[in-house]
Design goal:
It contains 4 helices and no strands. The chain has 108 residues and is an all-alpha fold. Helix 3 packs antiparallel against helix 4.
């Protein structure tokens, strides 16, 4: 991708990178590692708990139609929350791969 960008741009990115004094890759990796990933994990766990709570409400309220509807609603929003968190996680790693930012190997 970089080759195509350099070939069709007026200014070579290699030349521009020589004069760049700031490398934001470590900053982006730290933001991802210490802020975004834990936040996504927390929200995913909350969505999972909401889904499980919906199952409990749905099964325990078999006689009560209102409790069943509330359980269905909680299961629905729990699934929506989990899908959103998976999507955010995928978008973040797609952006990291697009800009060529390699995440450090955590397996030592």
């Amino acid at each position: 991708m970089r080759f195509l960008f350099e070939k069709f741009s007026l200014v070579s990115t290699a030349h521009a990178q020589e004069h760049s004094a700031i490398d934001i890759t470590p900053l982006l990796l730290r933001i991802n590692e210490f802020i975004l990933n834990p936040l996504i994990l927390l929200l995913f766990v909350l969505a999972l708990v909401m889904f499980m709570w919906g199952i409990i409400e749905f099964l325990s309220g078999q006689d009560n139609e209102e409790a069943r509807e509330k359980g269905k609603r909680n299961m629905f929003w729990g699934v929506i929350g989990m899908v959103i968190m998976f999507s955010v996680y995928g978008i973040i790693y797609t952006l990291l791969a697009t800009f060529g930012i390699q995440e450090p190997d955590l397996m030592m």
